[in-house]
Write a structure and sequence with these properties.
Layout: E1 5-9, E2 15-22, E3 25-28, H1 32-37, E4 47-49, E5 54-56, E6 61-71, E7 77-85, E8 91-93, E9 112-113, E10 116-117, H2 120-142
Antiparallel strand pairs: 1-2, 2-3, 4-5, 6-7, 7-8, 9-10
């Protein structure tokens, strides 16, 4: 399932994320044990999480409170930030609908289509509403009732 990961337990207790499911496809690093024995971020082939010293593969999506902010409009609750591991091995904030993208994992909706982040659910709801209006009009026109 998208967003699932598989960890490798190193001998020193460090955990390395060696596989991530992105777009219903598993992406894995080839030798997770090499990451364990390597020196810090030089051994990590994706992004290194500085808090728990884990390495996640490119395209992994996470919710982080690292850059959390307090939202004064909503009872001072902490706003968590959706991030993804980018190709340049850094965590970046996920993009809103309509933003320019290249990969699904860059978008909060997890859908990048024709170079833009899109919300498929929202589009389906709009199309469904239009279809319902057409059916209602036809029903009135022909005097039909649908239950």
């Amino acid at each position: 399932m998208d967003g699932d990961t598989r960890d490798y337990d190193c001998a020193d207790g460090k955990k390395v994320t060696w596989c991530s499911c992105i777009g219903a496809e598993w992406r894995c690093i080839t030798a997770p044990e090499a990451v364990c024995s390597g020196a810090g971020s030089l051994a990590c082939t994706g992004c290194e999480n500085k808090l728990d010293k884990t390495c996640v593969s490119t395209g992994t999506r996470i919710i982080s409170d690292l850059g959390a902010t307090i939202n004064p409009a909503v009872d001072r609750t902490i706003v968590e930030t959706p991030l993804f591991c980018d190709l340049d091995k850094s965590f970046k904030e996920q993009k809103a609908d309509g933003a320019v993208c290249q990969n699904n994992y860059e978008c909060t909706s997890n859908t990048c289509s024709s170079g833009k982040c899109v919300n498929i659910q929202e589009q389906l709801t709009k199309q469904n509403d239009i279809l319902q209006q057409i059916v209602d009009w036809l029903s009135k026109f022909f005097g039909l009732k649908f239950n």
